[in-house]
Design goal:
single chain; alpha+beta; two-stranded antiparallel ribbon; about 20% helix; about 15% strand
Length: about 90
């Protein structure tokens, strides 16, 4: 349904005929760590996340899994090499 509380005109899964069913009856504004993300909606009542109604909960454990402004570093060759096997490979060939 279309939000009738803070994000007027935006589709929201928490909106019901009785009003917003999210905890507290409304979405929460973004936090400082969300600044620069591509999933921010600017509304007259403030800035909100398009995906999560409570962005601070997504940042509580670590980084937000949907943040577009954060680049996840992939470590290559992070596999540990057994030194005994490495020495046998080197000696054999």
């Amino acid at each position: 349904m279309v939000c009738q509380t803070v994000k007027n005109g935006v589709e929201c899964v928490f909106m019901t005929k009785k009003g917003c069913s999210f905890n507290g009856g409304t979405c929460h504004t973004i936090i400082d760590k969300c600044e620069g993300c591509g999933r921010i909606i600017e509304c007259p009542t403030g800035n909100y996340c398009m995906i999560y109604p409570d962005p601070s909960a997504k940042w509580a454990i670590g980084s937000c899994p949907s943040a577009t402004h954060i680049k996840n570093e992939i470590k290559e060759n992070s596999q540990k090499i057994n030194p005994l096997k490495a020495s046998k490979r080197k000696a054999g060939h």
